[in-house]
Amino acid sequence: MKRKITSLALATAVFLGSAFTPIAINNVSAATTQQQQISQKDIVIVNGQEKVITITLLNKKKLYSVDQLSQIMAATVKYNSKTKSYEVSKKSGNQVKKIVYKVNSASGVVNGKKVKLSTPTKMIGKTLFVEIDSLVKTLGGDLLVDKNLLITVNGTINLSEKLLIVDGNDKKVKTLSINGKQLYSVQDIAKLYSASTTVNKNNEVLVTKKGKTIKLKLSNKNMVVNNKSVMLKENPIIVKNVVFADLSDLVKAFDGDILPLTNGYFISTTGLVDGDTFNPQWVGNDSVLVMNETETESRSLLLNTSSKKAQFTVNATELKVSPNGKQAIYSDENGYVYLVDLVAKKVNGINLNDDSVKLEFIWSKDSQKVYFLQGDKSEIVSSINVIDGSITKIFEDKLIYKTDLRLSIDGNKLLYVVGKEGTTSLTKGEIPEVDSIDLTDTEQQIYVINLKDAESKAVSVTTTKDNKVFPGFLENGDIVYISADTETDKLPDVKVINTENVVSTLIPNIDIKNLLITSEGKLMILTRESNGYSVIYKWDTVTKKLNKIAQTKLELTSFSVSNDGKTIVATTSGKDGEILVLLKNGKIETLTK
């Protein structure tokens, strides 16, 4: 005869897992069992980290150890023997947040105000068990119920969507805000790279695409990328079957770049162009042609300012973009001339016979002809027809090493800068040596050629001893340049030469770094102010004053203005040389790294 059990004595038991199901023996009901003093272990996720906490069940609702909850929330718990109550408190700034519990009571006191608890407190042995919601929120945290209970010590938990700019396009991505930090959906980021994501039973996250394998583990700060271990900024967390992780960790794992914006982030999926990037020229209003040098190559890139991607690469430097933005021209080390079709993205040779040195290409306004300096010593001013490649000599004299070739806005005049050679005196004897060099009147001067003259000639429009930098024609035909005196500490002036060749000071004593004449013949300058800011100004020909266009704490070295005048790209120092930044609507964006 089998022995009949009519009573049940249950001691305090400990079970692993998030659910506990007591064993019903004979006629003992589940409701009766739940009233027993039974505790068990439960797993909660605190700020992305797994924590084991002791719980009990009362009326099918979980109550949590007040001691362990207080430890999780960085709070203190004290027993007040006079009031026979437990006081949980936490200092937050100048305030102290406090909640008071009594044993087996359905009410509490939160920050001095009596409140009703959804579930009464329960005492098991020496441990008080309380509902978690009111305690966590009173102490400044938040929680979210999922497969595991998520707890944040500070701030709220929110599931939402955020807008990312991905390669210039808007993309919505699911986000989790927890403990004051924003995490992004691993699945959504993986889709940006056409990668797949799986989560196995061991809470391991696998992200794969051709040539890339990324392994993450929930509540673990270690990530493995192609068998290489990487430390994460935050623990990955899963909520409602979506894995969330730090955005920069994910983008870097895919070899991309992330840039902060005013309202979000820009993601470059393939990574920004790196190296020394300089001499930007606008192609339309949304792309620039730049020179780019790395340790292994020198090239020119057509860079889209929205996507920040290189759309076309030319294995040459010193290209010059046409006024219509459709073409560019350059000469290789052999002196041969090539025309770059920036629309079809093709390179064609237009003169592969003349091997003389050709420098400083300047396009005509109709984009049909290009002027340049020719010869080993840049002694000749010539032009090339871009249709048939024929070269025409315009002017030549004995002054060598001409520089700074410029074309007037109306296309009728050219200017350049050149200085006379010094007079050398030799010693007497069979093997004469240099005795002295007379540099009198050898300072560089600005010369002008009138292309309308029947016979081309160069006329000097300056005679002064100062250095003349960044010369150019204004829309009215005047010539401006930076005048610098290397013998003194005086700041440079911006000088102007009118059509009568009279030189005067336009802008005196200014720490100017760059001078630019726009395609419309407007004067713009880049200065370094005493407050440390780089400022770009535009000269107002009516008020005779400088109007501030943009400013930044970055130390800019050069700049270029789009054809519509609304956007500026500039160069500044980076880790591998100069980098390119975009200035638009008062904001600054990095274009290269």
Task: Describe the overall structure.
The model is unreliable at 1-36 (pLDDT under 50). A seven-stranded mixed beta sheet has the order 9-10-3-2-1-12-11. It is 6% helix and 51% strand. It is mostly beta strands and 593 residues long. Strand 37 and strand 38 (413-418) form a beta hairpin. The chain folds into three domains: 30-148, Copper Amine Oxidase, Chain A, domain 1 (2-Layer Sandwich), CATH 3.30.457; 158-268, Copper Amine Oxidase, Chain A, domain 1 (2-Layer Sandwich), CATH 3.30.457.10; 276-510, TolB, C-terminal domain (Neuraminidase).
Question: Based on the structure, what is the oligomeric state of the protein chains?
Answer: single chain
CATH-defined architecture of the largest domain: 6 Propeller
Mean pLDDT: 91
**Which outline best applies?**
elongated
> Portion of residues in helices?
under 10%
Give the CA-CA distance, first to last residue: 86 Å
Q: Whole-number radius of gyration?
A: 38 Å
How large is the share of residues in beta strands? over 45%
Give start-end ranges of low-pLDDT stretches.
Answer: 1-36
* Quantity of strands, as a count: 54
Continuous helix count: 5
CATH class of the largest domain: Mainly Beta
The major β-sheet equals: 7 strands, mixed
Class per helix and strand makeup: mainly beta
Q: Write the CATH fold name of the largest domain.
A: Neuraminidase
User: In total, how many domains does the architecture comprise?
Assistant: 3
Placed side by side, the strands forming the largest sheet appear as 9-10-3-2-1-12-11
Q: Tell me the CATH superfamily of the largest domain.
A: TolB, C-terminal domain
